[in-house]
Design goal:
Layout lengths: L11 H8 L24 E3 L4 H7 L7 E3 L7 E7 L4 H19 L7 E8 L3 H11 L5 E4 L3 H6 L6 E7 L5 E8 L6 H17 L1
Parallel strand pairs: 3-4, 4-5
Antiparallel strand pairs: 1-2, 3-6, 6-7
Length: about 200
C-alpha cells in the first residue's frame, strides 16, 4: 500500500479508541439528516411488479432496475414505509386513492410520479403488501435500509417530494414526516410546484 509507518495496537482499533479518545477525529455518532434543498441520493432498486410499473415509470420493457436518474418526470413523491407499520398501511391506502387523482389531473399527470420504498422489507414482503392492499403505484424494497440510512432518518412513515434538476439529479422540495393524508391543499401545492418548474424552462 505504500505506508512506511504502520503501528499495531494489541487491543485493536476499538481498544485504541477507548484508550485514546482524544485522538479520534470526528463524531462517529453524528448523523446528517437530509433537508429541503439537499440532493436526494441516487438510489437504484429492483423493479418488482413487471410491465405495469415499467410503463408508468417510462422504463424499457426488459428493465430490471430503476434509478431515479432514469425517470422522465418533473417531480417524484417518494413514500418510505414498512409493511408492519400500521400508520404506513393507512398512508398507503390514502396514497393509492391519491394516485388516481394525480393520474386524472391535467396539470400533474405525467409530471408527478409516485413510488414507495419498503424500508427493511424483502422483495417478497413488498410484492405481497402491494397485492394485499391493491397498491396502484410502484413499490420497491430497501431490504438493508441503505437508502433510509443515507437520508439520516429514524422512523417511518416518511415522504419526500423531489424535483428533477434536468441533469439526472433530484432536489428535495418537501418532507412529510409521520402519517399524512394527501388532501386538496397538498394537491394544490403540487400543482403550484409543477407550474413554477414550467416557468423556469
Amino acid at each position: 500500500m505504500g505506508y512506511t509507518e504502520v503501528y499495531r495496537y494489541p487491543a485493536g482499533y476499538h481498544g485504541w479508541k477507548e484508550a485514546f479518545p482524544d485522538q479520534v477525529d470526528g463524531d462517529e455518532t453524528a448523523k446528517h439528516v437530509l433537508a429541503v434543498g439537499d440532493a436526494f441520493p441516487d438510489c437504484r432498486v429492483a423493479v418488482l411488479s413487471g410491465d405495469a410499473d415499467r410503463k408508468y415509470l417510462g422504463l424499457p420493457p426488459d428493465a430490471k432496475w430503476l434509478a431515479l436518474s432514469d425517470l422522465n418526470a418533473r417531480f417524484v413523491l417518494i413514500q418510505m414505509y414498512n409493511t408492519m407499520c400500521n400508520d404506513c398501511v393507512s398512508e398507503t391506502k390514502e396514497l393509492t386513492r391519491f394516485f388516481k387523482v394525480v393520474e386524472a389531473d391535467p396539470v400533474l399527470a405525467g409530471q408527478l410520479k409516485i413510488i414507495g420504498v419498503g424500508i427493511y422489507n424483502t422483495n417478497r414482503d413488498v410484492v405481497r403488501f402491494k397485492k394485499h392492499y391493491g397498491v396502484l403505484y410502484p413499490l420497491f424494497s430497501d431490504r438493508h435500509g441503505q437508502i433510509f440510512e443515507c437520508l439520516g432518518q429514524a422512523e417511518v412513515p416518511l415522504a419526500y417530494l423531489v424535483r428533477a434538476k434536468g441533469d439526472g439529479t433530484w432536489i428535495i422540495e418537501l418532507i412529510k414526516r409521520g402519517y399524512f393524508e394527501p388532501d386538496e391543499k397538498f394537491l394544490n401545492t403540487l400543482r403550484q410546484a409543477v407550474a413554477r418548474s414550467e416557468e423556469l424552462d
